[in-house]
Amino acid sequence: MDWKKLVTGAALTASLLFPFTSAAQNAPNSGQKPASTKSFTIEPMVTPGKEESHTFRFSGSYGKDGFRAYGFLDLFGPDTDKYYGEIHLRYNTAKKSGPQFEINDGSGLPAVFRLGYIFDVLKAKRFYLNAKALPLNVYTAEIEKNMQLGTFASADLGKGFYAENWTDFHVPYRGKRFVFTEFTLGRKINDHLSLQVQVPYNTNSPGWAARAGLRYTF
Question: What are the residues whose beta carbons fall under 8 Å from the beta carbon of 109, sequence distance 6 or more?
Answer without folding.
Answer: 84
